[in-house]
Amino acid sequence: MKRSISDLNELKDFCIRFCGIVERYTEYIIVSGFVAIASGRVRGTEDIDMIIRPMNIEQFIKMHGELLKNGFNAMQGTDPKELYEDYLKDKLSLRYTFKDEPLPEMEMKFSKDALDEYQFKTKEKLPLTNMDIWYSSINMNIAFKEELLKSHKDMDDARHLRLIYSEEIDEKEIMKTKQMIKRYRL
To answer: What whole-number distance in Å separates Cα of residue 91 and Cα of residue 37?
Structure first.
């Protein structure tokens, strides 16, 4: 099943509701394609990517329980201890959806290195999205899309972000991030 622009309000609502729960337990950032989509880029998506700061198992069990109470479901299973040990702790992603609905998905994973920590340090709220949530910075998103991801879709996302946020673009910051990507991810 593919998402279309007509589903944008549903996707935004899903994201806002999910982030509202997660932020009660840990710090988070939304990264990648949804940043461009929420900033007006017209394209479909099936998921939203979220990085969270690592938490202990007790915090995760509480957060997972609240997500379940609010209609979310982890696609990989129901046992929070297994989800924590087999996925998050091993730096693998968990995927959450609304119960009984395959889409949209929130792909959530723990931060894993100094590059992710820098994303938290430079996180921002983006007024153009009309959403009160935390995103990795525009400069960070552009650098990741141009240096690491590089698909046609990612390059189009980067061009869109450069156009929409032209006044906020910092080429030195983008180059610094690209160097960090080379160091930590390539």
So the answer is: 26
Q: Residue 42 corresponds to which tokens in the numbers above?
A: 């017209």
Close Cβ partners of 89 (under 8 Å, ≥ 6 residues apart): 110
Architecture of domain 5-184: 2-Layer Sandwich (3.30)
Cα dihedral 51/57/63/67 (nearest 10): 90
Domain boundaries, the chain: 5-184
The pLDDT profile of the chain, 186 residues, written as one tens digit per residue, is 344 444 678 899 999 999 999 999 999 999 999 999 999 998 888 899 999 999 999 999 999 999 999 999 999 999 999 999 999 999 999 999 999 888 899 999 999 999 999 999 999 999 999 999 999 999 999 999 999 999 999 999 999 999 999 999 999 999 999 999 999 998
* 3-state class percentages of the chain: helix first, strand second, coil last, to nearest 5: 50, 15, 35
Bridge partners (DSSP) listed for residue 31: 49
User: CB–CB of 64/23 below 8 Å?
Assistant: no
pTM of the model: 0.93
Other residues' Cβ atoms within 10 Å of the Cβ of residue 78: 10
